[in-house]
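Q: I'm building a small set of examples for a reading group on sequence design. Run inverse folding on the following structure and report the sequence directly after it, with nothing in between.
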């Protein structure tokens, strides 16, 4: 199993192959539908983004309320295809990795190949377990969105599978 760290660079991404298991460490950003829409609107208005997308990894996740004494609540992946309409624009701006569950559209698969990015899968239904790999969490943008705000997460050995590699090969065929 490979260990990789953020910020993702082209050299490390090109060595990742569909179906491989990896452990991810470093900073990732948790965000879902509404935050994606705001990021896309900000890009279209040519304004400054609240996060730097260069080499970044986004986790399609909206954690549950944080229990007392914990860093974060249950943090499982959400269905990635809901973000497909925004993904090519974010990849063009430097996004290098996405974590979620499920199949991506053909347009997203081609954009991943074009921009030399990677789509990671993680385990659905295991949000409580996955939260153990999150070592720090803080809201960094769009606090008004509540559980859909952008969170900055520090992760260690976060378990992933390569769903679509930088050559556009998909685990889904």
């Amino acid at each position: 199993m490979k260990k990789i760290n953020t910020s993702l660079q082209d050299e490390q991404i090109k060595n990742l192959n569909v179906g491989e298991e990896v452990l991810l460490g470093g900073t990732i950003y948790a965000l879902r539908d509404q935050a994606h829409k705001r990021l896309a609107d900000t890009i279209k208005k040519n304004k400054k983004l609240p996060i730097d997308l260069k080499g970044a990894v986004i986790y399609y996740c909206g954690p549950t309320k944080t229990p007392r004494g914990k860093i974060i609540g249950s943090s499982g992946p959400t269905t990635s295809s809901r973000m497909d309409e925004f993904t090519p624009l974010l990849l063009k701006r430097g996004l290098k990795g996405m974590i979620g569950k499920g199949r991506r559209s053909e347009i997203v698969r081609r954009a991943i190949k074009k921009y030399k990015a990677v789509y990671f899968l993680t385990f659905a239904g295991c949000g409580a377990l996955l939260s153990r790999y999150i070592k720090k969490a803080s809201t960094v943008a769009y606090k008004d969105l509540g559980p859909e705000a952008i969170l900055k997460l520090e992760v260690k050995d976060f378990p992933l599978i390569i769903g679509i590699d930088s050559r556009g090969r998909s685990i889904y065929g």
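The radius of gyration is 15 Å.
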